[in-house]
Amino acid sequence: MSNRFVQILLGWLASRHVPIVLAVMAIVVMLPALGHGWFLDDMMFRARLVLLFLVVASRCTGQVATNAEFEGIAKRGIELVYDLEFERAEHEFSTLGRLQPTHPAGHFLLAIVDWWRILIDLEEERYDERFLGALDRVIEMCDSLLDHNENDVTAIFFKGGSIGFQGRLLFHRNDYLSAANAGRKALPLVQTALDLAPENHDLLLGAGMYNYYADVIPREYPFLKPLLLFIPPGDKKSGLQQLTLASEKATYAAVEATYFLMQVYYFYEKDYAKACTIALGLHGRFPNNMLFHRYLGRCYASLGNWEMAAQTFAEISARVRRGQRGYGVAADREAACTYVVGAPTLRSTS
User: Fold this and answer.
1) pLDDT tens digits, residue range 272-315?
2) Residue 217 contacts by C-beta under 8 Å, 6 or more apart in sequence?
3) Which residue in 36, 168, 277, 303 is a FRET match for 309, CA 20 to 30 A apart?
């Protein structure tokens, strides 16, 4: 009876993914209630109990996941974010946090879910405070790791990334001084991480973004020049090269780098053909992502392909009417404006 009870208890602990130390403590606590004489005398049962402990341990090794397991979960969650499957992505990233509670990746990626909630409706600010607070906690976690090892590349990477994403939101909210200050803080972290791990292509996203923006922004927005006097100059050409390499070879940041490349080719380089090629790829891979869908329509319109632009924005309007996530009033308004601009051309060519 006692043997059977312990076996059931061990099975239950394993099913709950209880760490092995807690499993052992639970059994030890129960021994007096069961009467320990049977335990001391039954050598065979002791052997079976040790074997069961090992089974529990093997099932609980997910508490310290292998790199391949951790990377697989992270990649799966990232894919879900870009397809706007936020709840499923949060489940994956919460799993990362449980598997490795002191690793900043799961906590950082949970914040990125809110970043995309913000991006699909920039007029809505209800997620701002939660997003910034979550990244503050990631920064604190990274600082704690760096207190023990100042060359911890993982901590440097996620601290720099957290500060960088805070800066991106602040820029969207027209807080240019705070955004520039975030860039100033993030840059040396990115450079240090690159020096420590030059083969890590994920780091090229931050370096590329900085190099590109630091070169382009002062020329595109002259009124911001005074805020950038104390920030190292950028290099647009190097920035584009770094972003391209990140989009091709990064483990986690490839899609974000690709998305950023699409934006810079569209808004700043005015290379609508390149932007359109990227938008086609992103929309094909993530068909539910409203931003990628809208950029595809914008690219068609900018290239003068009004037939494809009208078709794309008609699809967007249909999704707005269905209430699909991300397809809100702004998307419908853009679709209507594009139709008004392109309709005369469509009529004249038909």
Assistant:
1) 999 999 999 999 999 999 999 999 999 999 999 999 999 999 99
2) 224, 228
3) 168
